[in-house]
Amino acid sequence: MAIAAWATPLPAAAGADAPVAADPLRRKNSELQRLLDAASNPEFYLVLDVGRSTLRLMLGGVTLQEFEVQAAELAVPRVLWRKRPAPGDWQVITWPNGQIDPSPERERIELVAASDGSAPAPEVPPIALGPPPLPPTGSYRIRYDGGLALEVRYSAAAPDSQSVRGPSLPARWAAALTRAWTMIRRPEECDAARIRVRLDREQAATLYASLPPQSKLIILSEPEPNPAP
Amino acid sequence: MTMVQDYARLRAAPTARSRPWRARVLRTWLLAPLIGLPALAALLLAGTGYSARPLADALSDAAALYESHPADAATIKKLAAENRKLSRALARKVPNGNYLVIDQTHNRIYLKHKDEILLEAVCSAGSGLVLSEQGGRGRRWVFDTPRGTFKVLNKVHDPIWKKPDWAFLEEGKPLPRSAGERIEYGMLGEYALYFGNGYMIHGTLYENLLGRNVTHGCIRLGRDDLRRVYRECPLGTPIYIY
Known about the structure:
The complex is a heterodimer.
Chain A: H1 2-6, H2 18-39, E1 45-49, E2 54-59, E3 62-68, E4 71-79, E5 82-83, E6 95-101, E7 110-114, E8 139-144, E9 148-153, H3 169-185, E10 193-198, H4 201-210, E11 215-220
Chain B: H1 2-12, H2 21-47, E1 49-54, H3 55-64, H4 73-91, E2 98-103, E3 108-113, E4 116-124, E5 130-134, E6 140-142, E7 148-151, E8 154-157, E9 160-162, H5 165-170, E10 183-185, E11 191-196, E12 199-202, E13 219-221, H6 223-232, E14 238-241
Parallel strand pairs in B: 2-14, 12-13
Antiparallel strand pairs in B: 2-3, 3-4, 4-13, 5-6, 7-14, 8-11, 9-10, 11-12
């Protein structure tokens, strides 16, 4: 199954159709090489499979978790109506060193104990239950080197939440204005290219809590048709 | 007299023309930002941000930019052979036998074979607490379960726990003088699978705490699940922890 999913059938005819047939093969081989390189390293990596609408957390060639992508788009910065093109190689490189923003890391609880047993046992506080909560803004980003980012979007409000609400309308406008002003004044701080994916809220929360730091991202384009068994 | 009084009253009442010009200028400068700033903000928001389009379209367009090199049948055959070679190499990365995947955020362990889940069980992973030693050697322990790829290095039936120093400090007890004082039986359950650096998958006396991050870094399992994992994971079984 794994081989069938990635292998590409030999085209039936060459000659006049050769330029068209060769390019998809070259692209696919490039993707396979990136997957193989990532699987041969000890770091975690995400694989965004556009053809299958999935986002997979992987390590050493093994899928640890798979998320269903409801929508995916590429966003580039637009400053005062002027669009900037995405970096030329964004789709053919492995995006390195991903860091989640805002960070899900929580402050650690530290206990202090006397080495000679002269003090009573330190009191262990109740351990926090559950993974860290999602940001109330409706999205978080995984920022990679080179100004590339993967933005994960989900619904802002939890289905059963009544006390925790997202930002108010004036707050959102103020935040949007601040971002726009920052983009104008410091364009180098914008994301050069941003891939936005929409996940189910629960899956977004799982990814937010589970993704290790310094992960990579590989983008797979439309899959080739599977060969006949 | 009435006419004189009326005239005097009209003279005293200010008209638009008699208002000082400074007041007009001041009113204009006060009103202009109230109207102009929101308009400017709206313009900024409309013209600045991120422009998005479907990712599939962006990928197609990006692929079309690459120059098409004419290729003969031999080249295509070579590309296809390379494709098969890469696909096989990638498929070999997936373990042939059983392997374990541990999700320490949600405290779940999966026993898998290829893509099939043979067992999904509740476990307990590291608490993330930090214990600092006051006095003595001033040591510091962080009770995290490590992330990454590991292998089952050793399997033990009826494991004995040799209590480390942090276990005594945590209980407010002095460090023992003899090795015999460190031995405890039954704390680790029926079986233990070691995967390096002192970490193991083992049983627990506190099955009511399973599903919570409460351990000192090891993975705890319930009795029945531990029996199955011990039985179906030989030495060398890969373990993926995230």
